[in-house]
Structures are given as C-alpha cells and as structure tokens.
Amino acid sequence: MKNPLKFLQEVKQEAFRITWPTKKETFTGALMVFALASVAALFFLLLDQILRFLLNIVLTINF
Predict the structure, then answer these.
(1) What secondary structure, in 3-state letters, does the chain show?
(2) Structural domain boundaries of the chain?
(3) What number is the average pLDDT over the span 48-63?
C-alpha cells in the first residue's frame, strides 16, 4: 500500500456500490430461515423419539 489516502478513496467508492436487500427480500430470507430451522427441529425431534423407543426396547430385553 503506497498511498493511504488513495486507498481510503477507493474504499469509499466501493462502499457506495453496495446494494442492500429490500425489506421484502429480508423478510423472505428470514422466513425461509425460520421455516427450515423448524423443519430441522421437527426432524431431529422425530429421530430422537424413534431412537429412544428403539433403545428402550433393546434395554428391556431379558435373556
């Protein structure tokens, strides 16, 4: 980096090129994250219940 002033000017120019998401895009993205997190939570809840049931069966077997 030879010229710090030129570097700061370039940073400022790049900052103006940033395009932020709209409210609708932000809301849609947040809704998708919530939906997928809910689906994952339900999946792991179901998997946990199935494995618990199978483990109880294995542990209650009397030889």
Answers:
(1) CCCHHHHHHHHHHHHHCCCCCCHHHHHHHHHHHHHHHHHHHHHHHHHHHHHHHHHHHHHCCCC
(2) 21-63
(3) 93
| Rounded CA separation 10/26 (Å) | 28
Long-range contacts of 42-48 (CB under 8 A, 24+ apart): none
Are residues 25 and 31 in contact, defined by beta-carbon separation less than 8 angstroms? no
pLDDT of 27 higher than 80 = yes
pTM (predicted TM-score):
0.66
**Longest CA span, the chain:** 81
What is the per-residue pLDDT for 3?
87
Look at residue 53 in the predicted model and tell me its pLDDT. Answer: 97
